[in-house]
Amino acid sequence: MKSAETQLEAIISMSNLGRYEIVRLALKQIEIMMKKEECKKLTQTELINKALSNVITKQ
Known about the structure:
59 residues
């Protein structure tokens, strides 16, 4: 868990977005991703990491 928190802090610090804005956008991204067949196989951790990455890189 500590590693995920450290990774999240690093992502937030590199972003121009605020912490809550990143979380809000990541939740929306997860909702969209869950509808895709290839994302249904991902673990929760993988899904969160992918969503955060997508938000930060603006994909």
